[in-house]
Model the fold of this input.
Amino acid sequence: MLAGFRKLAKSPFAVVLFGLLIVSFAVFGISDVFKGPKGSGVISAGSRSMSAADFKQRFDNYRKAMEQRNGTTLTPDQAVEQGVDRQIVQELMLQESLAAALQQAGVAPSDKLVADTVHQQMSQLPPTTRPFDPITGKFDSRAYAALMQQNGITPQAYEASLRDEIAQTHFFSAIADGLKAPRIYAALQGAYLLEARDISAFAVNPASVQRPGAPTDAQLMAFMKENADRLTRPETRVLSIMRVSAPALEPTVTVDPAEVQKAFNFRKDSLAKPETRTIIQIAAPDAKAAATISQRLAKGEDPAAVAKAYGKTPLVLTDKPKTAVPDRKVAEAAFALAAGQVSGPITGDLGVAVVKVTKINPGAVATLESVRPQIEAEVRAQAAQAKAYDQTQTYQDARDAGADLVSAASKAGALVITTAPVTAQGTDQMGQPVAGLTPDIVKTAFDLSQGGESELVELGKGDYYAVRVERIVPAALPPLAEIKPQLSAVWMGQEMAKRMKAKADELAARVKKGESLEAVAASAQSKVQKIPGGLTRQNAQQHMALGEEFLGAAFTAKPGAIFTARAGQRGEAYVVAKLDAVRPAPTANVAQIALLTEGQAANGLMRDLAEATRLVAKTQMKTKSNLTLARQAIGVDTEALAKAEAGKAGKKAE
Done:
């Protein structure tokens, strides 16, 4: 939700240059209120310091976004292994550097501008979530604070973020205002895109290459060692998981009618449908004016015209209960009238007013039968939660008496599931998610040693678990016999590719020595083909079937050069090619491209300026980071990590 709050400057330049910055804000979270002395946090930039807690929040934001996007878990240890923690630290260093530099330069929005921005952003939320009083339309600070709390931050933290963003928007908008990249920039881009390359090429015929025989076991073992990083299976663990779940227990609960009646009696008033009315209220300057307003409304005059005569606008409350009328005394009077009636002057708590009731919707008293399914479901859920709690108490008592997880679960009547080997990502050996596993359970399990049992963990809403590690299967290469057919196929494919490449190089060498491309192609039972109209960077997308390696070689070759490359979308073929000519782009087309891409050139220049500014700010603010503290903040055992890295370094030295 918070990502939708931000609506930055409408300048196209500002939108472009902030693309990088705002994406990073959305992924890593917004700036927090800065805590701690200078240099005491994960990141220090000028007078600003980011605490370990704030860094953890940024990391969690990133992890949740990644898990939602990819459907896979990312543990802190995996983040370190993949370098994600370093990437986040580097990005946040640039963010904090720029904010600190602007702060030092005195670029700061006023409190009024921040408040106005907050109100504007809050007004763009869906009506049901806007923190505004539904009657008066005024900003509700308590609702605003509650909304922020739902999103895990405070109003002060959110407004601190806005200050940074507004300052950056104003700073870069001033730079971008009137910025116009030299036309030669766009012209060069057009010339680059439309430069045409005439290429002749032929594919190496697989029939001209001797197919490799089946590999020996020794060859396959050597191949496995060469590709150990890709073939090594990750560590897996066999787990016994004790689960107590209130939702799972609900079908076993018999609902007590007395409890249903008791719950209904307690909620009866809140379940009733209150009477609502449509009321037109006109404020009056005094009692005399109110009397006149009452008489005119009683005659049937238009309320808007009557109110306008006194410089007022009618307040229309449509289908509202008595509690929704702002003035208590006005509410009492309005709900004492019949439909169509007009009140006399009402001296309320908020001034003198006159009301007219245009419609009445009668209320309805709730009956147990009308809401029985709802009440029974609530009572059943509460009883199931109580039953789940009782089970956990029995389980814990048994554990305290010395029973192991399985025995204690049996005494409590709790479910125990033993899994097949699972990875630290919560998947099976085929990479498929294991049903019933949550990231919390997986993390708990992989923090234990073999035979270790966790404490009872509460997930909330009557859901509990405990886990035991039955067996740890260390990371290792699979047995050759288990993967021999698949490995043989890959080995033979790669061996065939090597032979195809050697054949392509051999044929290319003949062309380089003076034989014609056509003659060499014919000798290899192939045929020369040309790309119609030439290959350009603008039409390269249309020729992706040729393969990235071939296209890359074609655009880096010099005129007259003979080259070989893998071709095809999967690199299944090899070609021998000649760059016959490089034709410059037509002048008229370059001029047209330059005119069309002038704005893009300016945007690109502005992006480069924005990134360069962040890098300069990082140097000027002498920004520093504490990677060890960052890792500790997200739950990494840095001592164990240091020992593991030292062990790897020792093995490499050997």
Observations:
- Residues 547 and 593 are 27 Å apart (CA to CA).
- The chain has a mean pLDDT of 85.
- The chain has four domains: 10-179+609-649, 196-232+481-583, 236-256+369-473, 273-361.
- The chain has 25 helices and 15 strands.
